Amino acid sequence: MGKKTLKQRIVDASVELFQQDGYHNVTVDRIVEHIGASKGGFYHNFKSKDELLYEIHDVFISYVIQQSQNAYDKYDTPITRLCAMLQTLTTVFDMYQAHITIFYEESRSLSDEYSAIIHKKRDDYRDILQKVIAEGQEAKVFRTELPCTIVTMAIVGMINWTYKWFKQSGPLTMEQITEVFTDMVLRAIVTEQAIEEAKQFMIKR
């Protein structure tokens, strides 16, 4: 991995400081002092602290959207696509746990302009996931009596709460937790005719 850019260093320092003391208690002066940079360097990369907070949010949201689209393109059945997307979503909570914590704790501090962009990206992610659920229902591999929108929101809501309790030093790895989530989701939504395909992703009894 190459040397981090000043922008990356500012983001990393901000994530650390915001998580430690809260967004409103950390100044630009403190951020640049923390990494030995200048305020000029900060404002060359960000026009405001608000834009920096947006960047922290955008890093992981953009990542999960791109990886989810890649998963959709790579696989060709609703079950394999869904499992790959669950893997992507849980992985981001491991990779960007601090970013996500700040997102949920400080998102109300975003300006209307940046908040609108973030909400659009969150909708974009849900649209990809809901598309997979809908396609699975059309193919009769996912239960059609379950409203597609509610299934989608239930999956997102369940995994989103991970940021509150997941610890990298905990007894289960994120990979193991992903297996549990995948098992729970598949057992809840797959049809009898699709159970054999789904079994390869379920926890063995």
Automatic annotation (TrEMBL):
Give the InterPro entries listed for this entry.
Answer: Homeodomain-like_sf, HTH-type_Tx_Regulator, HTH_TetR, KstR2_TetR_C, Tet_transcr_reg_TetR-rel_C_sf
Domain (HTH tetR-type) ranges: 4-64
UniProt entry keywords in alphabetical sequence: DNA-binding, Repressor
* Origin superkingdom: Bacteria
The protein's name: TetR family transcriptional regulator
Is Iron one of the keywords UniProt gives this record? no
DNA-binding region, residue intervals: 27-46
Report the coiled-coil segments: none
Q: Which Gene3D superfamilies match?
A: Homeodomain-like, Tetracycline Repressor, domain 2
Entry keyword Transcription regulation: no
Quote one Gene Ontology molecular function term.
DNA binding
Q: Where is the signal peptide?
A: none
